[in-house]
Amino acid sequence: MKRAGLDWESRIGRRFKLRDLYILLTTVQWGSMAKAAAHLGMSQPAVSEAIADLEHTFRVRLLDRSSRGVEPTVYGRALIKRGVAAFDELRQGVKEIEFLTDPTAGELRIGTTETMSAGLIPAVIEPLSEQYPAVVFHVSQAPGVAQQYRDLRERNVELVLGRMVTPADEDLDAEVLIEDPLCIIAGVQNPWVGRQGIELADLVGERWILPQPDSVVGSLVAGAFRALGLGLPRTAVVSNSLQLENALLASGRYLGFFPASLIRFSEKRLMVAELPVKLPVQPPPVGIVTLKNRTISPVARLFIDCARAVVKPLANSP
Question: What is the distance, to the nearest Å, from the Cα of residue 105 to the centroid of all Cα atoms in its chain?
Fold first, then answer.
């Protein structure tokens, strides 16, 4: 039997309550009507009634109930997916209203990596904070692109700044900011600092801090040595920790890899120097990724404009 369609005007538009949708989302989040009721400060019968009203409106079962709690049905998952987006758009609208009433205030959630957090991100935040002192920046670090994009799709962050996967997925908008090559770096006390005419082959026997081989940078580093017919160098430490790498480089006994942007924006603070060695590999570009069809907040637009201005000298340098 063919199912009768749901008429928006007479059935959904007039009966649907945003409050009930919020109760449904909270119930699924907590996995229990009792826990959702406690979180919302409501009685459990009131939570059950709100969800029953939604099910009556849409004429489908949205939750499967059991002694272990509740799970969304296929219909529930479809509504929840759109509901999360709807509430996110409302939050963005509230942010925009707040910004229009007070252009010096607002907040922005940024997803990035440890390396970007040590170089490019503070170079963008600093001038913005100077101009808009009431703006709050929430910066979260994820180890890889997959996790960063997951946070973006789940709307835990508004934008991602870091190495990009190209071409971008269909649901993402991506803007390249700079080509950010890898550089060989050493602590300022290292005897290789200041020397010219260095080849990668000259450095194979040194103590190296190398990234994890299964990381994007790790595969690039291995490819650089292979491209020149060299084996991987003597490895003293394998780590993706920027803090650990910088601490070891300070001794003057190790070599490592940093992106050019990190050296450009944090060279003095990190007390490192770039060695004049050209690498035969090109890592993915650095850019900003946002969720397609998601309203960008005014603070996010300010951040993106500032990022373009900050990287312009680096993008134009040889």
Answer: 22
297 - beta bridge partners?
none
Domains by residue range for the chain, with CATH:
8-84 (1.10.10.10), 103-179+285-316 (3.40.190.10), 182-274 (3.40.190.10)
User: Which amino acid does the sequence have at 51?
Assistant: I
Amino acid at 299: V
Q: How many residues does the chain have?
A: 318
For 190-235, the pLDDT digits (tens) are 999 999 999 999 999 999 999 988 888 888 899 999 999 998 887 8
The predicted-structure confidence for 267-309, as pLDDT tens digits, reads as follows: 778 889 999 999 998 889 999 999 998 888 889 999 999 999 9
30 burial type by CB count under 10 A (0-12 exposed, 13-18 middle, 19+ buried): middle
Cβ partners under 8 Å of residue 238, min gap 6:
209, 210, 211, 212, 213
pTM metric for this prediction = 0.73
Q: CB of 257 within 8 A of CB of 211?
A: yes
Strands, sheet with 208-210, edge to edge from the N-terminal-most edge strand: 235-238, 208-210, 255-259, 182-187, 272-274
34 residue type, one letter: A
Question: CA 263 to CA 74: how far, in whole Å?
Answer: 50
The three-class DSSP label of residue 61 is coil
